[in-house]
Automatic annotation (TrEMBL):
Keywords: Cytoplasm, GTP-binding, Hydrolase, Nucleotide-binding, Ribonucleoprotein, RNA-binding, Signal recognition particle. Involved in targeting and insertion of nascent membrane proteins into the cytoplasmic membrane. Binds to the hydrophobic signal sequence of the ribosome-nascent chain (RNC) as it emerges from the ribosomes. The SRP-RNC complex is then targeted to the cytoplasmic membrane where it interacts with the SRP receptor FtsY. Belongs to the GTP-binding SRP family. SRP54 subfamily. This is Signal recognition particle protein. It catalyses: GTP + H2O = GDP + phosphate + H(+). It holds the Pfam family SRP54_N. InterPro entries: AAA+_ATPase, P-loop_NTPase, Signal_recog_part_SRP54_M_sf, Signal_recog_particl_SRP54_hlx, Signal_recog_particle_SRP54_M, SRP, SRP54, SRP54_GTPase_dom. The keyword Signal does not apply. It comes from the Bacteria. It is found in: Cytoplasm. SMART domains: AAA, SRP54, SRP54_N. PROSITE patterns: SRP54. Part of the signal recognition particle protein translocation system, which is composed of SRP and FtsY.
Amino acid sequence: MFNSLSDRLTATFKNLRGKGRLSEADVDATVREIRRALLDADVAVPVVREFASRIKERALGSEVSGALNPGQQVVKIVNEELVTILGGETRRLRLAKNPPTVIMLAGLQGAGKTTLAGKLSKWLKGQGHSPLLVACDLQRPNAVTQLQVVGKRAGVPVFAPHPGTTSEFDAPTGDPVAVAEAGVAEARQKLHDVVIVDTAGRLGVDAEMMDQARRIRDAITPDEVLFVIDAMIGQDAVNTAKAFEDGVDFTGVVLSKLDGDARGGAALSVASVTGKPVMFASTGEGVDDFELFHPDRMASRILDMGDILSLIEQAEANWDKDEAARMAKKFADQEDFTFEDFLAQMQQIRKMGSMKKMLMMMPGAQNMRQQLEQFDEREIDRVEAMVRSMTPHERLAPKIINGSRRARIARGSGVHVSEVNGLLERFGQAQKMMKKMAQGGMPGMPGMSMG
Ligand code: GDP
């Protein structure tokens, strides 16, 4: 799921790597690629259109951040917009103030409702609830038996309309509305605090089925109506979701079969088109293959940018705006980069956490693991010690640091003179680079790239 979409997006972002500034043409090309990738992933056309125009507007807009380079900035925007179309905040199940909480499941036949009923009830049981499953799918042969099997696996009782079967209950047969009502009454009487009502579906949306679902809903006034949709159905997802929205007006969406090789379009379209949040994800046939749906986590899974997103968050949280502004002004005034600035920058980097941890979070870090393991954080300590052994005058005018001063700095910081020489050499290069950058604009945090 999402593999090819992820690959396409990652490839798109790679093209932005190392760019100091994004031209309108860069943004256009990127947005075009994103649009194509989404369409190929079966995302509904209106959703793609809206998404692309939001990205373009924001990428060209004034969202400039000192902490991020332009490539990271675009990743951040795309990520935020993905979270938005996936429904924004994580939406929790609404429990009734006066139990039982009534949850009704709706969706096409084969969408995964019965399977979900088992998963949801097991999960709720694990949370300390005592759910009751109610079998109102009287259309499909075996649906009731299937729910009973699922209930047994979940260790949750099933209220079913067939006396004499494995059910421990006796319920009216034939009329799903009556079964639903009786099920809720049973739950109230036996002190089940959650009732999950499984309803019938058809292979296609039809008026009779929708009418039945609506009558069940009106009879039991559920706290949640969950619309279960097979993530594999692609472009059809939008029409199906709209039909159920008109028909039963669901309160939340459950995406099933997210473990399959669907291209992900349904997942990205349904919440956006209906304005209803995706609440759960079903990821297999087993009773435990079930997750709460977190739009933010799903978005990072789609972007598949390693942990670059948390890196971006960290950089933004810790980036000292005043310091960045001071540096920017310095560049603009063509002042020299000094060891005082160098120290200030090292403080910024330190604030962002352990260097090694940061590097490990970069995409592709797995391949560099060995080198990273060898990376010695004390190297930064040594550099800092050398700078601190310089006099204030030396820090501002490093040119005066001659041989005897180098020897003194080495002694003061407990390193070899060759290390001081190396530092001064690297510093000279950095100074030159800073000059160049001053002419070409601030490319964001020096030393950080997109991987
Ligand atoms: P219902 O008609 O809506 O009740 O659908 P079912 O719960 O009977 O599911 C239809 C088929 O899809 C069954 O074979 C399930 O085992 C399978 N299924 C349901 N959910 C998932 C899922 O998340 N992943 C996979 N791979 N199969 C699923």
